[in-house]
Design brief:
Shape: globular
Helix content: 25-40%
Distance between the termini: 55 Å
CATH topology of one domain: Rossmann fold
CATH superfamily of one domain: Vaccinia Virus protein VP39
Oligomer: single chain
GO molecular function: methyltransferase activity
Radius of gyration: 21 Å
Largest sheet: 7 strands, mixed
Number of helices: 13
Organism: Streptomyces roseirectus
Strand content: 15-25%
Order of helices and strands: HEEEHHHEHEHEHEHEHEHEHHHE
InterPro entries: SAM-dependent_MTases_sf
Strand order of the largest sheet: 6-5-4-7-8-11-10
GO biological process, one term: antibiotic biosynthetic process
Keywords: Methyltransferase, Transferase
CATH class of one domain: Alpha Beta
Structural class: alpha/beta
Number of strands: 11
């Protein structure tokens, strides 16, 4: 335990100079100009939906989500540019965050198997499946238990997909941007999945057009995204985990996504709300609040590591919050999960669409 902590402290110390150079120029350079219209429908009646900060990594910066009053689309405005996306993604899924995120995804095997079973009613034995935004490929590894004869490939712009190939969770790994790689993959896949991917993309419509290229005729596109119409998004405000600022750039109401898929030549064959719901809303909200109160833990984007007193205060506050975390877990699982479909509490929705 002590050696692991010492290794992490050395890693943070090695990363600190580069982060401090990045921040010395200010965070304003990480953003594009603010938009006056909706990126989904072009509507010009925009209202502010949320103002927040980075509640997970606690990197500097403030982020705004606007809502289009014409179509209901919610989007980050101003949006991060490529430099900003690199800065805020850095050390989240890889680097400092690789081990922690890997352990989290490793523990979700049953949820991945349930996802895979959802396709069986529409295609009981797909030959080739491409998971876009695969991360480290944990879904593909779990889905193989359900579909042992399916070849699972992964695509991602982070080095996670190379980890997926190294750990043999995917058969083929494609690293890069999906729209740019789509022409070489055209018509090759029975299923293309996008699990909590579209909300990360800078241009969801372009991603959907790429998917239409890659899915063969009669094949299926499988999408899970956060539901911006969930009641939890209003009740919990900035503490609702699916807002996930600054990574989540777009939140698409289900009616909008259905309509766009139909325009692109898909037929929606399934819409699910209860099944993709992840029963963690209160637990995650309590955790985000709890981590926001005490001094921050050491990170390379801090000018200097916290001293012993600040570390002791943080530990004390986190331990005091354990009962709230337990209560949140119980309420999520036993009170809210059964109501997810009927009460509009589901935090995500799923669409499965067949390419005509």
């Amino acid at each position: 335990m002590g050696e692991s902590r010492a290794d992490r402290e050395r890693q943070i110390a090695a990363l600190r100079p580069q982060y401090q150079r990045d921040l010395a120029e200010g965070v304003e350079r990480f953003f594009e100009p603010r938009r006056d219209d909706c990126p989904w429908c072009g509507g010009e009646l925009l209202t502010t939906r949320l103002r927040t900060t980075d509640l997970l990594q606690h990197k500097p910066g403030r982020f705004v989500l606007d809502r289009c009053e014409t179509c209901g689309h919610i989007f980050q405005n101003p949006r991060l540019n490529d430099v900003g996306l690199e800065f805020y993604y850095r050390d989240f899924y890889d680097g400092l965050g690789e081990k922690q995120l890997g352990e989290l995804f490793d523990g979700r095997g049953e949820s991945y198997r349930k996802r895979a079973r959802s396709i069986i009613a529409h295609d009981p034995a797909p030959k080739r499946w491409l998971d876009v935004g695969t991360g480290q490929g944990h879904f593909c590894a779990g889905a193989r238990d359900v579909l042992p004869d399916t070849s699972f490939d992964g695509l991602d712009f982070t080095e996670g997909v190379e980890i997926a190939a190294r750990e043999k969770r995917v058969e083929r790994a494609y690293r890069g941007m999906f729209p740019e790689l789509a022409p070489e993959l055209a018509g090759q896949y029975d299923v293309v999945s996008m699990f909590h991917y579209l909300e990360h993309s800078t241009d969801p419509d372009r991603e959907l057009r790429a998917a239409r290229q890659v899915v063969r005729e009669g094949g299926h596109l499988f999408i899970d995204v956060p539901d911006p119409e969930s009641r939890f998004g209003r009740l919990l405000g900035r503490w609702w985990l699916p807002w996930l600022q600054p990574q989540h750039l777009h939140f698409i109401p289900v009616a909008n996504l259905r309509a766009r898929l139909e325009e692109l030549g898909f037929t929606v064959v399934a819409e699910e709300h209860a099944e993709p719901h992840d029963a963690v809303d209160l637990l995650a909200a309590f955790w985000l609040m709890l981590c926001h109160v005490p001094p921050a833990e050491d990170a390379p984007w801090l000018a200097r590591p916290p001293g012993a007193v600040r570390r002791a205060i943080r530990t004390t506050v986190l331990l005091a919050g354990v009962p709230a975390l337990i209560a949140g877990t119980l309420i999520d699982r036993f009170a809210i999960r059964p109501l997810a479909r009927r009460s509009g509490m589901a935090n995500a929705y799923r669409l499965i669409a067949r390419r005509n």
